[in-house]
Amino acid sequence: MESKQAILIATSNKGKAEEIRKIFQDSNFDLKFLFDFPEVVKDLKIYENAKTFEGNALIKAIITGDLLNMLTLADDSGLCVDALDGKPGVFSARYSESGTDEANNLKLLATMKDIPFENRTGHYHCSVAIYDPKTKFIETVTGLWEGKIALAPKGNKSFGYAPIFLAADFDYQKTNAELDHEDLVIINHRGKAFRRAIEVVKNYLK
Question: What domains lie within the chain, and their CATH numbers?
């Protein structure tokens, strides 16, 4: 029986891990996460100080891949609003002073209070870096998810900017937080990026 190729996914977030497992469910890979190596990563500190999503994903992939000597995938993602010249962008998780989801959402809504609905377009951006410390192979892929920023938050089924993001897939009728989160991975930015990453890895391992 052919053994599965082990791949490290550079996250300790168990919610994200479940989402990524769903993306990989039809592929022949043995997924490992940072929480599978508690003793090795207990003092790990990663500073995501790049100016792009790709840059931050590369930082995570290279540091964790070298640490554990495994073929590694790492992602970075955020919300980019057209009327705000792409902000909050790479600062999505720390857009407000406190950095909580609620504070981030309220700050974004306040910043956009005078922008009419038709001009509230934006997208989620996810970049995935693929890195093999043994060969120094490296590549990045991207997934985008178009939508608009709602006028007010709605729903409680998800996290981050989900209560104020209206995906174009649903004709801007429901926020992500009003929809079942586990189903969104089929169409969202992270799902698109990781499925592209799977194809890169398959071709690399041929």
Answer: 5-204 (3.90.950.10)
